[in-house]
C-alpha cells in the first residue's frame, strides 16, 4: 500500500556538495510538494509543482531547486549544501479531486550537512 | 499574511478527552486538514473540513467555523498511542500552509 516513496531515509553530506532528493508517487497525482520540518518551526513549503515541468516557489526556496520531468517523480536539489540545510525533508502529493482531497506524505529524508 | 496558530504542548491522562484548537488567518481558504505525526515519522492524515460543522470520522472528528477562522480536533478516550504531534493545515489555494503543531503527551 505504498503511495509516496523517498529515495533515502537518512543522508549525510558535506558542505558544498550537490544533493539530490527523489520522491515518487504512484497515485497519478498532479500536485507534488517538498517541505522541510525543523523543531519549533513546523512544516515549511520549499517548492511545489502542479504539473509536469511546472514548478512554483514556496515560502523558503532559497538554496533549492526542483525538477518534475515525469508526473510521478519530483526531485529536490540542493545546489551547494550548507549546514543550515540540515533538516527533515518531506515530500507530499495530492490531487484536486473534490471534497475528499487528501495529502499523502512520504516517509521523510533526514539530511545532515557536515 | 498567512498565520495558523495552535498551542505548542498539551498533556492529558489515559481515558480523558482533550480538544486541540487551531485558529487561522489566510488569504484564501479551500479546506482545513488535521494530521497526526509520531516522533521520527511522516504526518498521517486524520480529518478534513471544507464546510462548517463537525466532520465525524471514527475516532478523529474535527470541527470548523469558517466565519471565526477556527477549528478543533476532539480526542476522546485517549490512549497512550495518541501521544504525538497534531498538525493543523489550511489549503490556500492549492497548497497547504501548516501550523507549528501541538505536541500531546498522554500519561497513564
For the terminal residues of chain B, how far apart are their CA atoms?
A: 41 Å
The computed structural class of chain B is: mainly beta
Shape of chain A: globular
Q: How many strands in all of chain A? A: 11
Tell me about the largest β-sheet of chain A: 7 strands, mixed
Rounded mean pLDDT score of chain B: 92
Q: What is the helix/strand order of chain A?
A: EEEEEEEEEEE
Number of helices of chain A: 0
The largest inter-chain interface, given as chain pair and residues per side, is: A-B, 25 and 20 residues
What is the alpha-carbon Rg of chain B in Å?
Answer: 13 Å
Radius of gyration of chain A: 13 Å
The level of helicity of chain A is under 10%
Please provide the count of β strands of chain B: 11
Uncertain segments of chain A of ≥5 residues (pLDDT<50)? none
Q: Calculate the terminal CA-CA distance of chain A, rounded to whole Å.
A: 35 Å
List keywords for this structure.
heterodimer, A: 114 residues, mainly beta, 4-stranded antiparallel sheet, globular, B: 108 residues, 6-stranded mixed sheet, 5-stranded antiparallel sheet
What's this model, at a glance?
The complex is a heterodimer of chains A (114) and B (108). Chain A has 114 residues and is mainly β. Chain A has no helices and eleven strands.
Kindly describe this structure.
- With 114 residues, chain A is an all-beta fold.
- Chain A is built from no helices and 11 strands.
- Chain A has strands at 4-6, 10-13, 19-25, 31-38, 42-49, 56-57, 64-70, 73-78, 87-94, 104-105, 109-113.
- Chain A starts with a strand and ends with a strand.
- In chain A, 35% of the residues are buried.
- Chain B has 108 residues and is mostly beta strands.
- Helix content of chain B is 0%, strand content 54%.
- In chain B, strands 2, 4, 5, 9, 10 and 11 form a 6-stranded mixed sheet that branches. A 5-stranded antiparallel sheet of chain B has the order 1-3-8-7-6, with no helix packed on it.
- The mean pLDDT of chain B is 92.
- The A-B interface holds A 31, 33, 35, 40-45, 48, 50, 58, 90, 92, 96, 99-108 and B 31, 33, 41-45, 48, 50, 87, 89, 91, 94-101.
Amino acid at each position: 500500500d505504498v503511495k509516496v516513496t523517498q529515495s533515502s531515509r537518512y543522508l549525510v553530506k558535506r558542505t558544498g556538495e550537490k544533493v539530490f532528493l527523489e520522491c515518487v508517487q504512484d497515485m497519478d497525482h498532479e500536485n507534488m510538494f517538498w517541505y522541510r520540518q525543523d523543531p519549533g518551526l513546523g512544516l515549511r513549503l520549499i517548492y511545489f509543482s502542479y504539473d509536469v515541468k511546472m514548478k512554483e516557489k514556496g515560502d523558503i526556496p532559497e538554496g533549492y531547486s526542483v525538477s518534475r520531468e515525469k508526473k510521478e517523480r519530483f526531485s529536490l536539489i540542493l545546489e551547494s549544501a550548507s549546514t543550515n540545510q540540515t533538516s527533515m525533508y518531506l515530500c507530499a502529493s495530492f490531487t484536486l479531486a473534490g471534497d475528499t482531497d487528501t495529502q499523502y506524505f512520504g516517509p521523510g529524508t533526514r539530511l545532515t550537512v557536515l | 499574511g498567512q498565520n495558523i496558530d495552535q498551542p505548542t504542548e498539551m498533556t492529558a491522562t489515559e481515558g480523558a478527552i482533550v480538544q486541540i484548537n487551531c485558529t487561522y488567518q489566510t488569504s484564501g481558504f479551500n479546506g482545513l486538514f488535521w494530521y497526526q505525526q509520531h516522533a521520527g515519522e511522516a504526518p498521517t492524515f486524520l480529518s478534513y473540513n471544507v464546510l462548517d460543522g463537525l466532520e465525524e470520522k471514527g475516532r478523529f472528528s474535527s470541527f470548523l467555523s469558517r466565519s471565526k477562522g477556527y477549528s478543533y480536533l476532539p480526542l476522546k478516550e485517549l490512549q497512550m498511542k495518541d501521544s504525538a504531534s497534531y498538525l493543523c493545515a489550511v489549503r490556500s489555494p492549492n497548497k497547504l500552509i501548516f501550523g507549528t503543531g501541538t505536541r500531546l503527551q498522554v500519561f497513564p
